[in-house]
Amino acid sequence: MESKRVTLTLPVDVYNKSKELTKAGIFSSLSELFRTAVREEVEDIAPLLEVKDKKKQWVEGLMEIREEIKKAGGYNKTNEQVIQRIREIREEIWQQEYAHRY
């Protein structure tokens, strides 16, 4: 497989933990650790690229929630508030996409 070299800047604590993982023999090198981590993350997120237009609103809703969390300085909403927001988004999609069929 062809490779592309990239430069990566990490927080010091992440770098130190990464070094510990390689010293412990869990990964043979930092490169292997980062390749594995990026590959797994890309594999988890890649299906979002295939989301059809109807599902796009779900992704946009998720991104909106993530942005709200980020702006608030972190996860400071209760589980009930997050669930309520998800329900609101689901209802909006239902009304826009499916309610007219019934």
List keywords for this structure.
single chain, 102 residues, mainly alpha, 65% helix, 0% strand, elongated
Give the secondary structure arrangement, pairings included.
Elements lengths: L11 H12 L6 H16 L7 H19 L7 H19 L5
Explained architecture:
By secondary structure, this protein is mainly α. The protein has four helices and no strands. The chain has helices at residues 12-23, 30-45, 53-71, 79-97. The longest helix is centred in the middle third of the chain and has 19 residues, at 53-71.
Q: What's the β-strand tally?
A: 0
Principal-axis shape: elongated
Overall radius of gyration: 20 Å
Helix and strand pattern: HHHH
Estimate the strand proportion. Answer: under 5%
User: How many DSSP helices?
Assistant: 4
Helix/strand/pairing category: mainly alpha
The quaternary state of the protein chains shown equals single chain
Largest sheet: none
The rounded distance between the terminal residues' Cα atoms is: 51 Å
The low-pLDDT segments are none
Helix content: 55-70%
Q: Average pLDDT, to the nearest integer?
A: 86
